[in-house]
Design goal:
about 0% helix, mainly beta, globular
Length: about 120
Amino acid sequence: QVQLVESGGGLVQAGGSLRLSCAASGSTYRLNVMGWYRQAPRNQRELVASISSGGSANYGDSVEGRFTISRDNAKNTVYLQMNSLKPEDTAVYYCHAPDTLAPRIGYWGQGTQVTVSS
């Protein structure tokens, strides 16, 4: 079993920055890719960014060039640096990691609210 705990959300003005963190615990050997999804009211959950244990990153089109994902494998922690934030970035951000040994299983954090005011 794996637990994911996010931190770092909050309220920021448009153009500002926030940094999210997600710490994994438990059977972390089962993880390779870790990432962030977000869900705004009335919207579907969408991929923000993901990163492999080797550092290969992937970004959603709406955040490319503004957000940066990184990870510290020794700490089993993934980060999301969010710059040039826009009101449309307002959402609940969820940490996610698929189980590499059981592909049908994915682990989710509890979510952290990010609100960007105009």
